[in-house]
Design goal:
The structure is a homodimer. With about 240 residues, the first copy, chain A, is of the alpha+beta class. Chain A is built from seven helices and twelve strands. A five-stranded antiparallel beta sheet of chain A has the order 1-2-9-4-7. The first copy, chain A, has a four-stranded antiparallel beta sheet with strand order 3-8-5-6. Chain B binds a DNA duplex (30 and 30 nucleotides) through helix 6.
Chain lengths: ~240, ~240
Amino acid sequence: MTVLLDSPVKCSSCPIRHRAVCARCDEDELSILEGMKSYRTFEAGQLILWRGEPLTYVASVVHGVASLSKTLEDGRTQMVGLLLPSDFIGRPGRDEIEFDVTATTDVTLCCFDRAPFERLVDETPHVAQRLMELALDELDAARDWMLLLGRKTAREKIATFIEMLARRSHSENVLTTKVVLPMTRDQIANYLGLTLETVSRQFNALKKDGIISLTDRRHVDVLDYAALHEATGDDADGGVLS
Amino acid sequence: MTVLLDSPVKCSSCPIRHRAVCARCDEDELSILEGMKSYRTFEAGQLILWRGEPLTYVASVVHGVASLSKTLEDGRTQMVGLLLPSDFIGRPGRDEIEFDVTATTDVTLCCFDRAPFERLVDETPHVAQRLMELALDELDAARDWMLLLGRKTAREKIATFIEMLARRSHSENVLTTKVVLPMTRDQIANYLGLTLETVSRQFNALKKDGIISLTDRRHVDVLDYAALHEATGDDADGGVLS
DNA sequence: ATCGTGATTTGACCCAAATCAAAGTGACAT
DNA sequence: ATGTCACTTTGATTTGGGTCAAATCACGAT
């Protein structure tokens, strides 16, 4: 199941050092974190946490992609968030979550036991502030997603999804044309409030229109950024995810 | 336009005293707030704040209902949040919002200028904590709404909406059967990702099934709570808003 | 190489909700 | 009482995307 790695990387050379909850920690604070952290890895498809389960630890995503999802009585499900590297799982002052967390790809988490972590948060205002910023970013992303789920057509949903991945996958500030899809058509459907068949059809429709090309199942090449943005339905600079 | 009332009520007798951002303030802190607050009222339909506009003040909703909404290029809109009494507008560390805020009914806000308020937040950890709780509540509500927008049928959406209002409108812990709709069919449609015609038809379908009765346009009477919950599609205790 | 399995694409058909179009309601002003 | 205006209901029709079903593809295991 869960594999515990005995040797997490040093905070100072951690890939998410500058974006995660620890972004503004100084050397002393990092060494405290260093002492209380442990890595856990999960394989693609594994359930990481589930609704109602008491949270014994909180964590930052180091590598990979995890998803948050909610389920209706009859089994219909909707993803309600994607966790990319540097995103945070768990929240101060709550010991349950009301959704499931699943590893979408193989995932590495940097975990902290709750009690000592919460103590650190109470004593370190800028960590609390950083948590607040992360929560507000999630809230903004959730609201963009509400607009997508409530009002966008299937084509607009797919275009928005590709644009979002392109935006997030550029390492610095260069827009990449090659986008890696971190999930299957089924999972994409789940994220966008569609069925997998519609996802497939719309990918191919965008391809037929010369906006993207599909090299293999997990890679999209954006041929025409302007047309892609046009296809999202968003106005000028709206709809930006985080 | 905006009316400024010169005599806001005393914090100590404020109806949202125990739920708003000031919930855990002591007498001294309240008197600081007392000194920096002012009331503003808006008529139903008025725009309170809009996207991109710099935020000069933050506020708590005292009376009435306001809505947050986002718009696509061609004018389709989606509400992304409802603000009921005690909900908070504005956020530490951001000076713009990425949605419009509109008065749904007549609204009274308790406003604080940003600069002094942020100073207070920095100096008063429990206010920062309360803001965090409010943000996390909004995030949970947003996620419930994503499930609704992405996966629920029109009937389920209407049932969920009525159930949410019933839950929120009970003054203490008694479930009321009479629910006041704080908005028009058009606005409800906007909130639920539907058209106004569909909203009207589904209200009448629930009525025909004996689950609710519609006294007048703005009042719903819940005749059968169990059936209403059944109709939401939520499982046992899920889908609770805030 | 071949098989098996899960992911993806494609096609045919259907239905829930959108769209288009008209009436119906009720509160208020004249 | 009459007209106006904004909101709501109801009906007829269309349609985007869901559903069901059958290939096709890709890739690791044997």
